[in-house]
Amino acid sequence: MHISPGRFFAGYELKIILAHILMNYDMKFEDNGPRPPNKWFGAAIIPDPTAKVYFRRRQTAPVGA
After folding, report:
1. Phi, psi of 55, deg, nearest 5
2. What do you get for the CA distance between the two ends of the chain, in Å?
3. For the chain (length 65 residues), average pLDDT per consecutive 10?
4. Are 58 and 21 in contact (CB under 8 A)?
5. For residue 65, what pLDDT is reported?
6. Cα(22)–Cα(37) distance, integer angstroms
7. d(CA 58, CA 30)
8. 37 Ramachandran zone, left/alpha/beta (phi>0; psi -120 to 50)
9. Which residues contact 5 (CB under 8 A, 6 or more apart)?
10. Would 52 disulfide with which of 2, 28, 30, 42, CB 3.0-4.6 Å?
11. pLDDT at position 1
């Protein structure tokens, strides 16, 4: 059995990307509504793929403010 040595690297990269998005962007659903209900796809439950999510880069405060 061969296990990829890059599996930990890939996991860390995903965590870094998620942290960057959470720290630098404001997110909201269309019309400031609640989270859309999940969809059933066979035996799987998935988030609504047609839901619109808006991202806006956060404004940083000036240095010394």
Report:
1. -115, 140
2. 57
3. 84 95 93 90 91 91 70
4. no
5. 61
6. 22
7. 18
8. beta
9. none
10. 30
11. 72
Which ranges of the chain would DSSP assign to H, the alpha helix? Answer: 7-24
Give me 38's structure tokens. 């999940």
Cα torsion 18, 19, 22, 23: sign: negative
Beta-bridged to residue 29, according to DSSP, are 53
Phi, psi torsion values for 56, nearest 5 degrees: -135, 130
State the pTM of this model. 0.66
**Site of tokens 């995903």:** 14
Q: Which two tokens stand for residue 53?
A: 């999510």
Instruction: List the structure tokens of 50.
Output: 């047609």
Tokens in use for 14?
């995903």
CA dihedral angle for residue 14, residue 16, residue 22, residue 57, rounded to 10 degrees: -100
